[in-house]
Amino acid sequence: MTTLTVAQERERVKAAISFHTQAAIQQIRLVGSELKTFVPLDRELEALRFKVDFRPQGRRSAGLQTFFAIAFSLRVFDDEESPSEIIRLDCVFETEYGLNEGYAPSEEELEAFQEANAVFNAWPFFREFAQNTVTRMGYPAPPIPFLRIVPKPKPVVAKSTESHHPKESSETELSEADSSP
């Protein structure tokens, strides 16, 4: 099974933990969705390709409450040379957190928490929504992968004969899927 990952640098993890220790999850709710099927499914689900993605969409605060919106998408394609989209599902979940009295999170803490922890907290709701919705559309439930939060790898320093300056590796993306078309 494919696993999606969120990779954060050490400083971002510390900032997210700072928010986490001063907040408590209140609720997670679906705030929007759009879905479409393009053709009747006449083959086994294992013969199809899946693409799952997510991104922070926005946030707001009201008193001692902070709300994070996370956009999720599921695309299902046939497994042919020129893949055709079979299912498109987009949805947004909002996570609500109560803050401790006197705590005012920094912009860095809010961003770090939203890009990993808020996504992680909403992930099971997205999985359940996507699987139930696709099943209600008459298709077998798609195997939505697990989500893991991992430390971002340290930059790799490569030796070069052309330059005396170290070369850093490229950035790791927020989400990775082995099953994209």
Question: What is the fourth-level CATH superfamily?
Answer: SecB-like
- In DSSP terms (H or I, runs of 4 or more residues), the helix count works out at 2
Average per-residue pLDDT, rounded, comes to 83
Structural class: alpha+beta
Low-confidence stretches: 161-181
Report on this model:
- The protein is an alpha+beta fold and 181 residues long.
- The protein has one domain (3-151): SecB-like (Bacterial Protein-export protein SecB, Roll), CATH 3.10.420.
- It is 23% helix and 39% strand.
- The chain has two helices and six strands.
- Strands 2-5-4-3 form a four-stranded antiparallel sheet, covered by helices on one side.
- A hairpin with a 2-residue loop joins strand 3 and strand 4.
- Helix 1 packs across helix 2 (107-136).
Provide keyphrases for this structure.
disordered C terminus; 4-stranded antiparallel beta sheet; Bacterial Protein-export protein SecB; 181 residues; two-stranded parallel ribbon; alpha+beta; 6 strands; 2 helices
Quick take:
The chain is about 25% helix and about 40% strand.
List the helices and strands and how they pair.
Elements: E1 3-8, H1 10-20, E2 23-37, E3 48-62, E4 65-78, E5 85-99, H2 107-136, E6 146-151
Parallel strand pairs: 1-6
Antiparallel strand pairs: 2-5, 3-4, 4-5
